[in-house]
Amino acid sequence: MPHRAIAGAGRRRPADLDAGGTCVSEDGSVVELSVEDWRARVLAALRADGQRLTAPRLAIIGWLAAQTTPFSAEALTAALAHHPASVGRATAYRAVDWLRERGWLARVQTERGDYTYARTLPGHHHHAVCTRCGATLLFEGCSAIESLTALLARQGFLVQGHILELFGLCARCQAALGGMR
Fold first, then answer.
1. CB 85 within 8 A of CB 56
2. E strand segments, 28-155
3. What is the tally of structural domains in the chain?
4. For 41, 97, 142, 147, which has the most beta carbons within 10 A of its beta carbon?
5. 116 φ, ψ to 5°?
6. pLDDT grade, residue 15 (50/70/90)?
7. Is residue 181 in a domain?
8. CATH no. for residue 74?
9. pTM above 0.70, yes or no
């Protein structure tokens, strides 16, 4: 199951994200995070940042774009170890860091506490990760966090940031398990 995005109530994504199947409609409907659109946008971001589109970098972006579930940097390195473009470990890790710093990859903590990465779009999102297949839903909205922030503020605690990751079963896995909820 691919990465998908869900809009939060009352939130609207920037208008330029409506091409290639990556826009979340105003009514909060779910849409696929297009592989080709993600790849094209990342390549444009690399060019805009003055990065060269080397063979190893293109191989990395191609592999990442094809991932439909969260992956580790080690999986990326192993997958491209014998690639004709000679993708080295340091190059792969630098690419993951660059993409994460600019919002093209989200670091997702697994239920076991390990970190994986998922393709995303720049901007503030949260994640719901299927513990069976690894499908990742990206969603916007911080109303629950805002309630907690207000509660903590009344206790004298100043929240300076947050990460929200939920774990459970996606609709496809629930159906495969006979509707288990």
1. yes
2. 31-32, 105-109, 115-119, 126-130, 136-139
3. 1
4. 41
5. -130, 180
6. very low
7. no
8. 1.10.10.10
9. no
